[in-house]
Amino acid sequence: MHILLGQTLSFTSDPFKSAPAEAATHHSTGAVAIDGGTIIAVGAAQDIRAAYPDAEVTDYGKALISPGFVDAHVHYPQTAMIASWGKRLIDWLNSYTFPEESRFVDPAYADQIANSYFDLVTAAGTTTTVSYCTIHPASVDAYFGAAQARGLRVLGGKTCMDRNAPDTLIDTATSAYDDSKRLLEKWHGVDRISYVITPRFAPTSTPEQLEALGALWREHPEVLMQTHISEQHEEIAWVQDLFPESRDYLDVYERFGLAGKGALFGHAIHLTERERDKIKDMDASLIHCPTSNMFIGSGLFDMAGLMEVGHRIGLATDTGGGSSFSMLRTMAAAYEVGQLSGTALHPAQLWWLATAGSANALHLGDTIGTLAPGYDADIAVIDLSSTPAIAQRSARAEDLWQALFPTIMMGDDRAITSVWAGGKKLF
Ligand code: GUN
Ligand code: ZN
Questions:
Q1: What atom in ligand 1 is closest to the CA of residue 204?
Q2: Which CATH number is 2-68+370-425 given?
Q3: Segment 2-46, tens digit of pLDDT
């Protein structure tokens, strides 16, 4: 049994559906009690200490005890080529991404990058990631193995591609189905690991491969399915050429049984009215990747418009198309994209998106992303005065949200004081 002392922030409602500032409970002298891997109590420090007088205590002072961040769309194999200059999506994939992903044919390289990836993201306060691996099954073993060693709750899957990629990165419809199925059976539900069926995107799969992966999803409706949709105009036009019989991009996935509740659609910037309505009706998740969308020059995600009609939306770095491993930097970019689209997202909305909102998009809203009894003890402890620039600004704050916002806009891994995963302190 362990008690963490600090400020606590617990969302009690969705700040996109209610007054944002009132969507959370804040204890300025708060505490979180952990037993095993689970949170058992959150409240005022004196109450929690009185309830568990024998617990071990770690005092984080004025730091904020937050749920660990949930990064709902990443490519861990792109860790070493993040911040590659000057290309748009298709050229960026061909010039930088595919050559790097080809290196994962070497399982030792996959292990090395998976470990360095988790060191980087946990240092940034992230405790759950949802990753595309490469076409190589060993890249999935490397990712899940490195997460398992750290006690993290993670999701991911083998990326499937059987056309429009170099020979070194091509599988087939049959091998994609067989490998994905074997990896799913090997890893799904082991410790805190979840498998995700992962066709990269429509242009890199033949109809036969999409068909096979749709069949696998029908056989395993308990897992999520992730892919990309409507990120750039050139990509959308290419999909229309490759699948002339489809009404639009989403229709390709619909035809092959790859659209529905439990689908995670990355980017979703240039959706048609039909696609927006259909995704809402099927209750699929949209994953917003704001640093990536600005870095690759993709466009502005319509957070306000989509939230208004009740879409299920998560937030993500999309590394290495995204330009940061940090969900703080990602919240800042979401704020900036919102401003460019005419809506200033409230700090409560940004923090919720990076925690409970992303968890909800992954259908894990009862398990992670919130500080409350029964939730996994995945915690990031945040210093709200981590640099001189932030400290002088937060010193003027009149409430929690004003105290938080300078760290959202200017914070990085220097703000992350400590991270706990599954009730164990990582650092
Ligand atoms: N679309 C297909 N693959 C990718 C990828 O690796 N990154 C991004 N940003 N978009 C993609
Ligand atoms: Zn992506």
A1: 2
A2: 2.30.40.10
A3: 999 999 999 999 999 999 999 999 999 999 999 999 999 999 999
Q: Are 197 and 237 in contact (CB under 8 A)?
A: no
| 203 token code pair | 């242009």
The residues spanned by each domain of the chain are: 2-68+370-425, 69-361
CB 219 within 8 A of CB 194: no
Select from 288, 278, 201, 276 the least CA-distant residue to 236. Answer: 201
Residue 97 Cβ contacting ligand 1 at under 6 Å: yes
Residue 201 CB less than 6 A away from ligand 1:
yes
How many Å apart are CA 308 and CA 101, to the nearest integer? 38
Residues sharing a CB contact under 8 Å with residue 409, sequence separation 6 or more, in sequence order: 332, 335
pTM score, whole prediction: 0.99
Protein residue whose Cα sits closest to atom 7 of ligand 1: 321
199 close to ligand 1 (CB < 6 Angstrom): no
Instruction: Among the bound ligands, name the one nearest to the CA of residue 320.
Output: 1
Closest Cα to atom 1 of ligand 1: 228
- What's the CA gap between 213 and 259, in Å, rounded? 11
CATH tag, 69-361: 3.20.20.140
Token couple for 255: 């035809």
The amino acid present at 95, given as its one-letter code, is: S
Instruction: Kindly list the distances between the CA atom of residue 365 and the CA atoms of 67, 164, 326, 344, in Å, as whole numbers in the listed order.
Output: 12, 36, 21, 25
Nearest protein Cα to ligand 1, atom 11:
228
pLDDT digits over 292-312, tens only?
999 999 999 999 999 999 999
